[in-house]
Design a protein that fits this description.
Largest sheet: 3 strands, antiparallel
Number of helices: 5
Shape: elongated
Number of strands: 6
Order of helices and strands: EEEEEHHEHHH
Helix content: 40-55%
Strand order of the largest sheet: 1-2-3
């Protein structure tokens, strides 16, 4: 960090404060000119993009996951807190991949992986929409998988 007054790189930190908005405020003093100044550090987030089945690229929206989970978990003993937790796990898994783009199928697979451990009926509901079930046989195959 360069001093805004004399352009020197020599400074010392006098005080550091973290704020709730993922910002760090530092009060500094230049060793050369003894002037004080404040710097702010912001957490830079990587924009995650989703490649849809039709090839369209969209910005990742965790609220879409939450809405899908709410529909699947309707009238099930799953709390909103559990739904938010699950959506956050999926978001974190995607961010750990450290790629700027992810396929929508990968998101659906992650949701199913986590949802299976929360509520099996909600898992079946979600799978029937996500995997576009068309025949009763599709449900039978999934039921056999869930029983394992």
């Amino acid at each position: 960090m360069r001093c805004p007054y004399c352009n020197s790189e020599n400074s010392k930190t006098l005080e550091t404060r973290d704020s709730p908005e993922n910002t760090t405020r530092r009060r500094r003093e230049c060793i050369n000119c003894s002037k004080r100044y404040t710097t702010y550090e912001y957490l830079e987030t990587v924009e995650l993009m989703v490649r849809k089945k039709d090839g369209e690229l969209q910005r990742f929206d965790v609220n879409k996951i939450i809405r899908g989970l709410q529909k699947a978990c309707e009238k099930r003993p799953v709390t909103m807190s559990q739904i938010n937790e699950l959506a956050e796990k999926v978001r974190q898994d995607l961010m750990l991949k450290d790629t700027g783009e992810v396929a929508s199928q990968e998101i659906g697979d992650l949701i199913m992986k986590h949802l299976k451990n929360v509520d099996r009926i909600a898992y079946i509901r979600f799978a029937s929409v996500y995997k576009e079930f068309e025949e009763p046989e599709d449900f039978r195959r999934l039921l056999l998988e869930v029983k394992k």
